Amino acid sequence: MSTTYLGMPTLPVFGQGNLNATESFPAAAKRELGNSQLRANLGHATHTIRDKRLRVVGELPDWEDLRSAGSATKQAVMARLPELLEQFEQNFTARGGIIHWARDAAEANEIVRDLIREQGVDEVVKVKSMATQEIGLNEYLEEQGIAAFETDLAELIVQLDHDKPSHILVPAIHKNRTQVRDIFLREMPGVDPDLTDNPAKLAEAARAHLRRKFLSAKVAISGANFAIADAGTLAVVESEGNGRMCLTLPETLITVMGVEKLLPSWQDLEVFMQLLPRSSTGERMNPYTSLWTGVTEGDGPQNVHLVLLDNGRSAALADEMGRSALHCIRCSACMNVCPVYERTGGHAYGSTYPGPIGAILSPLMTGITSEENSSLPYASSLCGACYDACPVKINIPEILVHLRAEDVDSKRGKKKLPSQMDLMMKGASWAFSSGKHLGLLEKGLPLGRIAAGRKKKITKLPGLVGGWTQSRDIPAPPAASFRDWWAKEHKDPAAGSTPTDSANTGEQA
């Protein structure tokens, strides 16, 4: 598959890391729905987070204006992305930083590996980073004989359990505290064998484990929440302080960042520092906000690198309808309000990016042609809660419908043979084109009532519509249609006709 890199043709993209699903969403969701503990954990966690978010968002009378400002800023960034990237590169390198460009996951992983080997170490500490998860950096470094230690508490839990994150903000959201205690007892060296599942005790055990890593690490790896073009400055926001330790103590700092994370100026950062914490953790501000601009002699890392990652972002940028998915600031607000995510969890999506944003971002970046990716845009009820929650107003339902259309078009093939969906839509068009057609169709409904039997419900339908009855029963058609009822109730005995006769001639729909 070929791609373009910021509008310029490039070589084919071979390695995209953890973006492609390995099984279809329906198959994965069916398996995850059988995990009652998962559903209980997710239900409790998502309700808690979204309730906190609603409280702090409600404090701001200009919240909708902030959302509009964030959306407008991101639109401007996408329109000027090549220019802003060049500006950022110039300012970052002028202050002693070194920039590396990576077209895909394979290139990014190799760059990071070589930078680590230059320092002669085989261990690194990591700040929580979606970009490094996306490219599968931890797994790649392990293959190369380099141990990467996650320092975010939730990421540490997932790593120790040899699991994968299931949420953008809270990677271990699918685990409760008893499960965490069992993981620590099983996997964490030197942990107290009498460790309880008290949250404070669990945090204390993790802190003692990580402190040794912070003090000995010579190389740290991070992502970035924002990059300010006119200053060459990177920003990381976090809640635990582990990021601050990684960003200041080691001699070498390597950051991996998607090219879309740019903001034009410091003034723009003000808006996002109000949007992000409220939308993600339900806080008025993040406990730790770290910013660095290149190298400062005698203070912090003296060997500073930034890997700017494309990995399918140019493909998403080229999609006029879908490019706003790149506005995402990884707050996870859409996931916390999504009824589908709340029941299936993040693993069902098969990608680094789960939930509503993942259902559009992964197909946009990697293509809609594979069976696994093509199922993701259907992992939604299109209720619109994600759009209402998004701090930068990404119209996720609209993009989902757009991608569904692309999926249908891609499956028609060269002969353009009509699919079941094509035939159904054609039939619906005929039925609703006139009152006469609809009346004829309604005359066949008694057959449906007979087929439903005494249970007064339809439990199985054929073909494509059978997807509905796989997970729900459909009520049987009523004894009489609305049109029949209306005709009966409003019949004029004197005239011997009904007000609906004209509709049945096809003159009205």
TrEMBL record:
Keywords: 4Fe-4S, Electron transport, Iron, Iron-sulfur, Metal-binding, Repeat, Transport
Chain intervals with Polar residues compositional bias: 497-509
Domain 4Fe-4S ferredoxin-type: 325-394
GO MF, one annotated term: 4 iron, 4 sulfur cluster binding
Limits of the LUD domain: 85-307
Annotated region described as Disordered, given as residue ranges: 469-509
Top-level division of the source organism's lineage: Bacteria
GO biological process, one term: lactate metabolic process
PROSITE patterns linked: 4FE4S_FER_1
Pfam families named in the record: Fer4_8 (PF13183), LUD_dom (PF02589), LutB_C (PF11870)
Domain Lactate utilization protein B C-terminal, first and last residues per copy: 422-490
NCBIfam families associated with the record: LutB/LldF family L-lactate oxidation iron-sulfur protein
Protein name according to UniProt: Iron-sulfur cluster-binding protein
Organism listed in the record: Arthrobacter sunyaminii
